[in-house]
Amino acid sequence: MAVAKAACLNHISRESSDIRRLANFYKEIFGFEEIESPDFGEFKVIWLNLPGSFPMHLIERNPLTKLPEGPYSSTAAVADPSNLPRGHHICFTVSNFDSFVQSLKDKGIQTFQRSLPNGKVRQIFFFDPDGDFYPSF
């Protein structure tokens, strides 16, 4: 079996019932920029780009889907902070950790902090408007 050569991240896709709300969140919190999006006709999309990093595609959720808005963890469908280190998430690295954490708090976003046992890695977890969570280092 061949292994893909020179593989790299192309984009991350998120599904949401309110892609405009989610786009505004990512633009405000991380500095994503809205880029030209194709017209898929049957559903709406918003494409975002994080300069120097990666694009994110926000896709309108099928209204007939009966799934909860976000998979909060691998074991629970509720926003339980004890599940934060595991399960579905997107991780961002930021160079201004302390001021970034303060800006989240200033925006009223509940955060959950922890450090790895070696003390070298600090993490801040928080939920986006759809209930998915993000560790930032």
UniProtKB/TrEMBL annotation:
PROSITE patterns: VOC. Pfam families: Glyoxalase. SUPFAM superfamilies: Glyoxalase/Bleomycin resistance protein/Dihydroxybiphenyl dioxygenase (SSF54593). Residues 8-137 form the VOC domain. It comes from the Eukaryota. This is VOC domain-containing protein. It comes from Gossypium armourianum.
